[in-house]
Amino acid sequence: MKKTAIVVVALAVFVCATGTGWAQSAEDAKFKKFQDAFWDAYFRFYPTTGTLQGFTKYNDRLEDPSEGALDKFNDALDGFNQELVSKIDKSKLSAENQIDHALFLDFLDLEFIKLQYTLPWQDNPLLYNNLFVNSLHSLLVKHGASGLTAATARAKLIPGLVKRAKDSLKNPPPEYTQAAIDQMPAIIDFYRTDIPRLSGGTASLQAELVKAVAALEDFQRFLKGELLARSNGNFRMPEPHMRTLRGLTQGNLLILEDIVPRSQSDVKNIRNAMGEICIPYFKIMYPDINPDQLAAQKGVDVAITSIIQGVLDKLKGDHVGRDELIPRLTKAATDLKGFFQEQGLIDLPAEALAIEPMPPYFPPGRWTSLQAPGAFEAAGGYTLHIKPIPAAWSAEDATSFLEEHNNFYIDFMAVQKIFPGLFVPTALARKNPSLIRRIAPNQALLMGWPVLLEQILVEKGYGEFDLRMRLHQLKLLLKNVIDFQMDMNIHEGTYTKDRVVEYMMRSGFMTRAEAERRWTEIVLNPGRAALTYIGYQELLDLEKDYQKLKGQSYSAKEFLQKLLDHGAISLRALRTTIVP
């Protein structure tokens, strides 16, 4: 796809995505009309994404990654570009629509980067796996019986999508192909078992599922044989493209050259703070070892590492059993919600959050997944899926993972991943009517927002000021910093798995199972691991400036709410709305 077309589309997309409630002028009205036409064309090409967003017009279709379809989509974008340039005057748009204009530019430029440089249709079999699942799962979960006709039509198209996938995939990274292979048995079982259960076993759909399963089994053989044999691609992107991808995803003001030194200082400062907490415990736990002599003999940094690791080793055994992880996280979410309500720390959304085990056919490389209402849906439920400890894990690996997520750590892990997690900021930001802000919310904002709450929770006495919980809250914060560093060094550098795992275990005090899991998640999700730390740093800077602006009238609660008043917009746009 040509970049000029994408830029045009970016403008077009921006036009289409603007909120429905802001058409205050003739230009805004034209902008709204344009966006309607754009989204129709966009979801005609991405019908599964349309279903997930509540755009139902193309529920009976599937994505077509053929060269002819891509060229046709490109031509459509060219047409939108001409229409946008000739009919929309950006300077006459409302202030909110002008914000959306910038968001659209990022959205479409990001689409260009994906199509031109990451080449997902050619180099990522996981993209097809996700379509196999989401195309039918979205229909049956969102629409139930009313979605059966569309589901039958899509099931009929699955063999054709399999053929196009086999024709399109060229030279994926072996890590992607292996992850797709590992996911396929669960996808086939989804077609054999879950779809009939969700659909009620209708005869017409069942007949198409038989043919779809045969095609998926053929695709599985293709993955294991022909594709794996030629999977020699590199999951790392050239640095300029990766940096562009990061910038478009984050929409941040800080540049990496600013954030990297901060991360280096934070690693040192957080480890020192952990050491201060651990020294009194260490003296009790290891009475025969003098911390001062340890520092004199081995150096301060080695001594701090030994002291912290020694204390963590004594505490790591306080954890739940293998089958109790999700109930324990659910309890943590309930406790946190009650504490927020009791303390009046934030105004919580009225919507409820359901917490369920993650089905095995969900995408690999994510431990949690939030299912939210689509951008075109007036309302809907929120479900947070948590991946159970895999049955294939050995007892040793499961124990290692549970030692990482022990009872002193798990509540703060829940703050970032469960409640508030992405749920609260997503639900609050969703009150904004803009479609682009719902379709492409800024993940750095959503993921960094809960981290701001952790220090408040500590200061307010969550966990009854237990220093063991404070120690593990700092450990999680350290993990956020290391995730940022490793995301950069993996995708823009040359760090190997062994080097990453060793650094995470030594500097971040992670267990081996956790470090290896983090490696896989970072490899399969370029740029995502860095978002929490980048968003957190941007919000810390913004909070300092907002405190100066408000002076004695500053309120942490007001600031946290204000961050989401305009939806999950880019961090640079957020600053202009909060600190003019």
Number of strands: 3
**What structural category arises from helix and sheet content?**
mainly alpha
SSE pattern, N- to C-terminal: HHHHHHHHHHHHHHHEEEHHHHHHHHHHH
Overall body shape: globular
Number of helices: 26
Q: Which sequence of strands runs across the widest sheet?
A: 1-3-2
- Work out the radius of gyration: 25 Å
Fraction in helix: 55-70%
Low-confidence stretches: 1-23
- Biggest pleated-sheet summary: 3 strands, mixed
Compute the separation of the termini in Å.
38 Å
Proportion of beta-strand residues: under 5%
Mean pLDDT: 91
Quaternary: single chain
How would you explain this protein's 3D organization?
The protein has 26 helices and three strands. It is mainly α. It has a three-stranded mixed beta sheet, with no helix packed on it. Helix 7 packs antiparallel against helix 8 and helix 15 crosses helix 17. The relative contact order is 0.10.
Key phrases:
26 helices; mainly alpha; 69% helix; three-stranded mixed β-sheet; 580 residues; single chain; disordered N terminus; globular
Short description:
This protein has 580 residues and is mainly α.
Any chance you could write out the topology, listing elements then pairs?
Elements (H helix, E strand, L loop, with lengths): L2 H15 L8 H20 L1 H6 L14 H21 L7 H24 L1 H4 L1 H19 L4 H21 L5 H26 L3 H27 L9 H12 L5 H30 L5 H8 L1 H16 L9 H19 L9 E5 L10 E4 L10 E5 L8 H10 L5 H8 L5 H7 L5 H5 L3 H18 L6 H25 L5 H12 L3 H13 L6 H20 L5 H7 L8 H8 L2
Parallel strand pairs: 1-3
Antiparallel strand pairs: 2-3
Helix pairs in contact: 1-2, 1-4, 1-5, 2-4, 5-11, 7-8, 7-9, 8-10, 9-10, 12-14, 12-21, 13-14, 15-17, 20-24, 21-22, 21-24, 22-23
